[in-house]
Amino acid sequence: MERKIKKNKYEGSIKNKIVGNYLFVFIISILIFELFLMYSVRYYYYSTAEGLLRSQAKYSRELYMSYLSDNSLEQAILEDRDQYYRHNKSQVQVLDNSGRVLLDNLGTSNIGEIIDSEDVNLAKNNQEGRSIYIPSYSDYNVMAYSMPLYNRTEQVGIIRLITSLNKIDQIIVRRNYIFVIFGVVLTAAMIIVTFFIANSIVKPINELTDVASQLAEGKFNIRADESSNDEIGKLASTMNFITDNINKKEQLKNDFISSISHELRTPLTSIKGWAITLQDEVEEGSLLKDGLSIIEKESDRLKIMVDELLDFSRFTAGRIELSKEDTNFTNLVKSIYKQLMPRAKKSGIDMILNYDSESIHAVIDRNRIRQVMINLLDNSLKFTENEGVIITNIFEKDENVVAEVIDTGIGIDSEEIALITGKFYKGKNSNSHTGLGLSICEEIVKLHGGNMVIESKINEGTKIAVILPKGDLDEEIN
């Protein structure tokens, strides 16, 4: 079964946070800056327009005070009305102190009406004022500037100048459009730069994460890149130091297991041999005969444990070399069934073998795959009760040979499925000798370029599928 380190659901979150935070600060800054620019442009153009209106209104007021103040406002308008707008390009209105329009150089319907706008109300109170609005005779904003008119002693009326803001607003919109384009381009450039910055920070972290994941899977030959002269480089150096220590301890452990396993095989062979020999010398049914039989069986059990330990030592040390050859997979499993059938009948278990063809071939190490299938079927026999069923299906799928071992045994807890191929893991209900059987099977299948898939439910049974590439015999020989 393929066991992989589960990817954290927040994978890549550091990069996202860096990009997100940088962009958030940058976009807020750009927005503030652009709003400031837009306000400044509008303020500049509107202030310029206001200044022009003020100058023109002041000129008209000075003109009235210098030449027309001896007459009443109404008389001055009747006699010299063009004096108020002769030099003005703006709309000119003259109002009395109540805000009633006495003169409008455009001849609008405002004549005779009382205007109650902010600028006029300020001018009534001897102040200058400005207001912006859309008049009834136009679709665009206009700016009105009002200023009190004086004779030599008192305020006699109001001079009011009005100008269209249409062209100014168009200029402001064009400027704002440029600012928006500039902001978008700058933001796009910042996104690219931020991603480069984030990648430069996150990439070495991701590489260390990959190294850590491989270390967690037992690949202790992996090395982290120590080239950077920063905290990442120091962390990589620390990881390599830890890996070196683990490798040394793994090597000591494997050497010890290999050595002790070899040392155990010779005395075990002698013990079993003498147990068999002495059984022929004692009477049937005697206590000594039973004891010698137990010694023989336990010797066989110890031999299996020693063999598993030796295989484990070889696999972890990488000293296993496959001897592949073109193999009739159907015949291989048939021979295993013949070997295990007596045991199954004795336990009252029905063993069924299904196959698509008598000749399903694959390029494999025959002995090692035989070891895998025996181990899987042996486990099924251990954990399947009397009158249970074990079914083996052999078939070809795509470019693979698939062997499924399905039993009606006690099953495996869902929490244990990802753990049972781990080294020395026996599980809650295991009768395993060392907890290495499935781990060794998985390693053998992986060496063939295949994989194991385990499915199980408590009290319903287990299904283990071994998927092996058919391989190419010519390729393997070359």
Which key phrases capture this entry?
478 residues, alpha+beta, 10 helices, 12 strands, 17% strand, rod-shaped
Describe this structure in words.
By secondary structure, the protein is α+β, with helices and mostly antiparallel strands. Helix content is 53%, strand content 17%. A five-stranded antiparallel sheet has the order 2-1-5-4-3, with helices on both faces. Helix 5 packs antiparallel against helix 6 and helix 6 runs parallel beside helix 9. The longest helix has 56 residues. It is rod-shaped. The N terminus is likely disordered.
Write the layout of secondary structure elements.
Elements: H1 13-68, H2 73-80, E1 91-95, E2 101-104, H3 118-124, E3 129-133, E4 142-150, E5 155-164, H4 166-216, H5 231-279, H6 287-317, E6 325-328, H7 329-346, E7 350-355, E8 361-364, H8 366-383, E9 389-397, E10 400-407, H9 437-447, E11 451-457, E12 461-469, H10 473-477
Parallel strand pairs: 7-9
Antiparallel strand pairs: 1-2, 1-5, 3-4, 4-5, 6-8, 9-10, 10-12, 11-12
Helix pairs in contact: 1-4, 4-5, 5-6, 6-9, 7-8, 8-9
Briefly characterize the structure.
The protein has 478 residues and is an alpha+beta fold.
| Major beta sheet summary | 5 strands, antiparallel
Helix content: 40-55%
Task: Tell me the radius of gyration.
Answer: 48 Å
Order of strands across the main sheet:
2-1-5-4-3
Q: Which percent range describes the beta-strand content?
A: 15-25%
Secondary structure: number of strands: 12
Distance between the termini: 30 Å
User: Could you state the order of secondary-structure elements as H and E?
Assistant: HHEEHEEEHHHEHEEHEEHEEH
Task: Specify the overall morphology.
Answer: rod-shaped
**pLDDT averaged over residues:** 80
Protein structure class: alpha+beta
How many helices? The count is 10
Low-confidence stretches: 1-12
